Amino acid sequence: MIDLLRGRFIAFEGPDGSGKSTQLARMAHLAKAGGLDVIEVREPGGTAIGEQIRSILLDPANVDMTVRCEMLLYMSSRAQLVEQTIAPALEQGSLVLADRFVASTCAYQGTAGGIPMQDILDVAQVATNGRMPDLTVIFDVDEVTAAKRLNPLLDRMEQKGAAYHRRVREGYQQLAESDPDHVLVIDATASEDAVFAEACDRVEGALRGLSRV
């Protein structure tokens, strides 16, 4: 498993409250224990500029922000992150683990927000310079379970309501169906240990498949 992770770019995705950040931290710990150099990044954010964009995006006061503006701000943060951190790390053979990437924009601003998917993908191509994850791991959880796990002090995105977050989940599922070789779905309603065990098994299997291509 460790050798398969070297120089790979893996995005951890899922609805708010899915436990993806916890699972990313566990994967990072496993990889570091195996001797890999691991770069962990989050979106939006991950750079000084990106963190400033994050504060704008998640501020509950910004109720007038349009979905298209929202999408472009996420992409701006992503562009800085790729050029400043992700691309150099991959060139050095590090494992890059991202807490969200383009799949989030497809699910949140695309399926749930109504922006045409092709518009998002076109902007993503420019923002990332074509640098996309080797694997996207989606931690799937229903909106009721997810809501119980969230901090009661919700940020602007978390405040969008159950119907919105139901569409987000549908968006993630559609992404997985469209690219099963690169997008994995993990049942995140199980225990933390069980979810991690399944994630490790599925990631290893998928990376072995990519290595044979």
What does this structure look like?
The chain has helices spanning 2-5, 20-33, 48-58, 67-91, 102-112, 117-128, 143-149, 162-178, 192-212, and strands at 9-13, 38-42, 95-99, 135-140, 183-187. With 213 residues, it is of the alpha/beta class. It has a single domain (2-212), classed as Rossmann fold (3-Layer(aba) Sandwich), CATH 3.40.50.300. A five-stranded parallel beta sheet has the order 2-3-1-4-5, sandwiched between helices. α2 (20-33) packs across α9 (192-212) and α5 packs across α8 (162-178). The chain starts with a helix and ends with a helix. The mean pLDDT is 92.
**Helix run count:** 9
Content-based structural category = alpha/beta
Per CATH, what is the topology? Rossmann fold
Number of strands: 5
Q: Would you state the CATH class?
A: Alpha Beta
Helix content: 55-70%
Order of helices and strands: HEHEHHEHHEHHEH
Order of adjacent strands in the largest pleated sheet: 2-3-1-4-5
The CATH architecture category equals: 3-Layer(aba) Sandwich
The span between the termini is 17 Å
Tell me the name of the CATH homologous superfamily.
Answer: P-loop containing nucleotide triphosphate hydrolases
Nearest-angstrom radius of gyration?
16 Å
Question: What structural keywords apply?
Answer:
alpha/beta; Rossmann fold; 5-stranded parallel β-sheet; 5 strands; 57% helix
In short:
This protein is α/β, with parallel strands linked by helices. It contains 9 helices and 5 strands.
